[in-house]
């Protein structure tokens, strides 16, 4: 007796290019997941090596050649990986000019630029530490989609509040410019050549440091009027520092409020549905 069940469709074998794409971009497959985990480990190790290369002590000097060699091993590794990504994608130009394509490129490009400028292969670029940005892929690799969604919400809130933030920064820029110029004139008037404020740009630098309550202490007013102005600027800084947080928080709350409706389900009396929802998300009954 013959069966009428259709035979399962046999998928054609993957080409070499498709296999590479599945490994590099396919986090859902075992091979892709293993590749991504090994890539994260390589990034972390390479960043550690870059940091150790900048340590100048007698204990580290014998290890410098080894560290340079490891640094360039990772650089060549990331170079090969980048060109494999370009090779296996359907639209190489789109990948090259994408955000992740740019991050992947700058993870190794500074080293080659340093060599072409005549510094030699022993001079590893500290700018290569920017390859740590590639660790942001951890959200995709370990399926932390909830964190990614929250990050998107925060980014959208900042973008919606951009006009308020620009106005705020403009006001701050005007305040520090005026305060820096005033401090320059005040200190010059009271102290003359003994003033630590030799120019208005130095005064603006002091105003920025003071207004942000950092207070490096490398340039400080010494006259009574200068100290009074400094105190006023510090108090103003304390008052303004929370303003951008308020803008962004308001946008986040507003976005959450817009997405939810106050309607209650007639069946289970649950609230918190999306405004365009047709059915209850909890019991499935029609709204």
In short:
With 287 residues, this protein is mainly α.
Q: Biggest sheet: strands, sense, closure?
A: 2 strands, antiparallel
CATH topology of the largest domain: Four Helix Bundle (Hemerythrin (Met), subunit A)
Number of helices: 12
Given helix and strand content, the structural type is mainly alpha
Distance between the termini: 52 Å
Question: How does CATH name the architecture of the largest domain?
Answer: Up-down Bundle
* Oligomerization state: single chain
Q: Low-confidence parts lasting 5 or more residues at pLDDT below 50?
A: none
Shape verdict? flat
CATH classification, class level of the largest domain: Mainly Alpha
Question: Mean pLDDT, nearest integer?
Answer: 81
What percentage of the residues does DSSP assign to strands (E)?
A: under 5%
Q: What gyration radius follows from the Cα positions, in whole Å? A: 29 Å
Spatial order of the strands in the main sheet?
1-2
Which H/E pattern describes the elements?
Answer: HHHHHHHHHHHHEE
> What is the percent of helical residues?
55-70%
- Report the strand count: 2
Number of structurally distinct domains: 2
Structure overview:
The chain is mostly helical and 287 residues long. It has a two-stranded antiparallel sheet. Helix 2 packs antiparallel against helix 3. The longest helix is centred in the middle third of the chain and has 30 residues. The radius of gyration is 29 Å and the shape is flat. The chain has 2 domains: 128 residues, Up-down Bundle (Four Helix Bundle (Hemerythrin (Met), subunit A)); 80 residues, Helix Hairpins (Orthogonal Bundle). It starts with 15 loop residues before the first helix and ends in a 13-residue tail after the last strand.
């Amino acid at each position: 007796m013959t069966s009428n069940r259709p035979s399962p469709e046999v998928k054609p074998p993957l080409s070499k290019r498709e296999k590479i794409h599945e490994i590099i971009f396919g986090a859902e497959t075992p091979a892709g997941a293993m590749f991504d985990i090994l890539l994260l480990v390589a990034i972390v190790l390479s960043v550690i090596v870059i940091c150790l290369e900048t340590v100048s002590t007698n204990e580290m000097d014998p290890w410098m050649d080894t560290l340079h060699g490891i640094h360039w091993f990772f650089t060549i590794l990331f170079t090969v990986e980048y060109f494999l990504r370009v090779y296996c994608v359907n639209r190489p130009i789109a990948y090259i000019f994408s955000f992740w394509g740019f991050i992947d490129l700058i993870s190794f490009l500074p080293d080659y630029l340093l060599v072409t400028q005549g510094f030699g292969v022993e001079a590893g670029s500290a700018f290569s530490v920017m390859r740590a940005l590639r660790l942001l892929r951890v959200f995709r690799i370990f399926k932390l989609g909830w964190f990614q969604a929250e990050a998107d919400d925060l980014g959208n809130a900042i973008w919606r509040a951009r006009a308020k933030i620009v106005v705020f920064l403009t006001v701050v820029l005007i305040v520090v410019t005026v305060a820096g110029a005033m401090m320059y004139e005040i200190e010059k008037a009271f102290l003359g050549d003994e003033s630590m404020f030799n120019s208005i740009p130095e005064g603006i630098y002091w105003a920025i440091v003071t207004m942000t309550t950092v207070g490096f202490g490398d340039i400080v007013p010494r006259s009574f009027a200068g100290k009074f102005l400094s105190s006023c600027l510090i108090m103003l800084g304390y008052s303004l520092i929370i303003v951008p947080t308020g803008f962004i928080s308001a946008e986040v709350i507003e976005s959450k409020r817009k997405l939810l409706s106050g309607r209650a389900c007639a069946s289970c009396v649950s609230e918190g549905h999306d405004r365009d929802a047709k059915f209850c998300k909890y019991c499935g009954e029609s709204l």
